[in-house]
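Worked problem 6 (solution included).
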Amino acid sequence: MSQTPWWRGAVIYQIYPRSFLDANGDGVGDLPGIIDRLEYVAALGVDAIWVSPFFTSPMADFGYDIADHRDVDPLFGTLADFDRLLAKAHALGLKVMIDQVFSHTSIDHAWFRESRQDRTNPKADWYVWADPREDGTPPNNWMSIFGGVAWQWEPRREQYFLHNFLADQPDLDFHNPAVQQATLDYVRFWLDRGVDGFRLDSINFCFHDAQLRDNPAKPLEKRVGRGFSADNPYAYQYHYYNNTQPENIGFIERLRGLLDEYPGTVSLGEISAEDSLATTAEYTAPGRLHMGYSFELLVKDFSAGYIRDTVSRLEATMTEGWPCWAISNHDVERAVTRWGGHPAQPRLARMLVALLCSLRGSICLYQGEELGLGEADVPFEALQDPYGITFWPNFKGRDGCRTPMPWIDAPLAGFTSGEPWLPIPAEHRAAAVAVQEHDPHSVLNAFRQFLAWRRTMPTLLVGNIVFLQTAEPVLMFERRHAGETLLLAFNLAADTAHVALPAGSWQPMHVPGPDVGQADGGTLVLPAQSMYCARLG
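Solution. The predicted structure is:
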């Protein structure tokens, strides 16, 4: 086991800085707030933190529009604060991963301010610029994920620039070697500071089709997406040309070469493509990304068949890479609500953590999952997310999963002494850390207990996975490693389920945290939203 890289089987805790803890009373979380709560994070039993963007930004997309890749936005603190965070996390045994956003910058970035001036400046070809068609319309039919056409007019150049996301997020032209080198240079800046790895935002969006070919139309029945909904015009196309280009592989290999200069560092790519699982397998081949994750489990479908088929398909294609799984993050409705409805059910929350952490791979858990927080209902007048404001009311945006962490059961939840940037719902305050700390049956304590148990189970950390065919609502699989075979079964429904126990001499194991079922002869009896674990004797 000592030879296994730290990140294989690791549990990575995602911190959304705006909403974790506000140390200066301005209503927005910050790096000193994270520092103040690192002991809490370490006590969860996780291996690493992933800190969402804290870089200099006008915050059009809350930090994913970066204006300076090498500095901390004053809203979040200073570079010295980040260095303190890094030192304290390392002292507590936590690795630190940070976001990197390669494909685009903020419209306020110095590179873009120069590039937009004219067609002859030193940065003129650092972004994706294109002439209009003869009738003045954009050069092709590409659409933005955030709604509408993916091209914005710039009168100074009499050209359009590409933005796959907000118009405030112009796309860099990675066909330009200077852009690739500048990107690797700022990655090295953070490696030199001591970070342990990077979560790479939209990593398959770096390159576009150099010929700017139109994307083909997608038929109505196939308009389903990951990270966007069917009523978004982005869903009306096959995205063959605006992302996931073959040239991206060469850049990823250059990035891996840089990371290999810093032993123990890791790359985790976020991939949203036409076939995200196939692209994840391709991007995590030897010499490329260490890990990849997609939106495939960040969906509404909570059937055993869907989870089994999704994980099996990645396992079949990813013969050498390493997967990473998540069921919640800062972009999607919280899993306990998405899969269990309102109000959030603690029993479901306890089982979901156990299920996710029993899959083969590394795990990303989003702040608040350890409390079983449900999706907050944020009224339109309180919305901050431009994505939600554009698509309201069919899609309410991402603010419902971004509300502040509740630390105590009080009006401001111990998050801030000021006015919080998003409202904190009463049901979240009732599930605050301080409330759950002393309840032995709380989601928080179940979370800690399960993660502590998992750490003692090499088969769960690095073993192979083999799914067994079971009827809904039971998901069953084996994990195998070094001569040990574990059987795990999960009842995804809110009613008791019965399933045949596979042949074999199974010795039941005590699993702390979730509700558990038991074998009755050759039948496994699983109470609502419970699990069962046994070792082959």
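Discussion: The chain is about 25% helix and 20% strand.
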